[in-house]
Amino acid sequence: MDILGLGSKVDVEFLLDPQGQRKQIEVKIDENKRSLQYIYYDGEDVNGTIQIKLKKNSKIEHQGIRLEFIGHVEMLNDRSTVHEFLNLSKLLTFPGELTESTSMDFAFQNVEKPYESYIGINVKLRYFLRVTIIKRFSNNVFERDICVQQLSQFPEINNSIKMEVGIEDCLHIEFEYNKSKYHLKDVIVGKIYFLLVRIKIKHMEIAILKKENTGSGPNIYAESETIAKYEIMDGAPVRGESIPIRLFLAGYDLTPTMRDIQKKFSVRYFLNLVLVDEEERRYFKQQEIVLWRKQEKDKDKSKQSAQQYAHYERPEAATNKSEDNGTGANSGENSSVNGPLSSENNSDIPSD
C-alpha cells in the first residue's frame, strides 16, 4: 500500500523466505481477490530483508524509516474500529536522504502470536509488516500480510455425542457422533437410529454451519454460513433402521473454533441435522462441535519452538440458546442429551 500515490518514486519489497523453505497458503481476501501468504506459528521469529527501490535518477529526503510488526482486529462493518493487540517497532535508519536503492535486514525474535489469522463476514484478524518512510508532509507506507496458524495438542477429553430427539407420538430418533472435537482434516463418523416413525419423511440431510458473532452487548452481529451440506437419506425410513454418517472435513474452508477473541468476536461450528417430510416441513437439530488444528506430519518436530503449540482449553458447554434458528443443543462434554426437534415451518405437530 502506498498512501497518496507517492509510489512513483519509491517501492518496497518484503523478502521473508529467500531460501524457499517456508510454506505458503492462498488466503481468500474477498470474493474476487486472493493473496499468497507465508505461514507462521506462535513463538517463531519474523525476519527477512526490506528492499527499498528507487526509480532511476530519483532521491527521497526522509525523517527516518520505521518497520512495525502488527496484529489487530478489524470490524468490517465499522472500518474505523481497529483493536490492536500486538505492535513491535524498529527504526531501520535515521533521518537522511535516499539516493539509490538499498536493502535492510530485520528480525523480530520469538514473537508471541496469540490468535489465528481470520477473515470472516464482519471481522478480520490480521498480522502484517508495515514499512513507513517518514517524510515532512506525507509518509510512504507499505504493508505485507502473513498468515498465523495456531496448533493445538490432542484434547485430553473427547467424548462422543449421543442425543435422543423427537416429536411426541410422531417421531423419535437417536443420533450419535464418534467425537465432539475434530481436527481440520478429520472425519466425522456417526449413526442415526429411528426408534419411532409416524411421519412420512421424504429425505434427511446433514450440514456443517459456521456461526460468527461480532461485537458485544446490544451491538452483537450474528452471521451463519453453510460450509457443506450432504443428503444422507432419500425415502421414508422405518422403525429400527440405522443410517451411517461419514463426513470428511478436509477440503473445506474451515478454521479452528475461536471463542471470545479480544472480547470482539467468536467463531463456532455446528452439525445441523435436517429432516424433511412430504409436506415440505423441515425439522432440525443443531449440535456444536469443536474444531482444532493439528500439526502436519511432514513438519520437523525438532525444529519447532516450544511456544508453537497453543494451549488447548476445554470448550465451554454450549447453552440451549440458539444464535440462529437452531435449538443449540448442549456440546459434547455430556455423553447424551435429550431434546425436541425444531420445525422451520409452523407445523401443527406438537413437540416435546
From TrEMBL:
Pfam (any one): Vps26
Basic and acidic residues biased stretches: 311-324
Residue segments, region Disordered: 295-352
GO-annotated biological processes: intracellular protein transport
Biased composition (Polar residues): 325-352
InterPro entries per record: Arrestin-like_C, Vps26-related
Domain of life: Eukaryota
Family, per entry: Belongs to the VPS26 family.
PANTHER family reported in the protein's UniProt record: VACUOLAR PROTEIN SORTING 26 RELATED
Protein name: Uncharacterized protein
Organism for this UniProt entry: Adineta steineri
Phylogenetic lineage: Eukaryota, Metazoa, Spiralia, Gnathifera, Rotifera
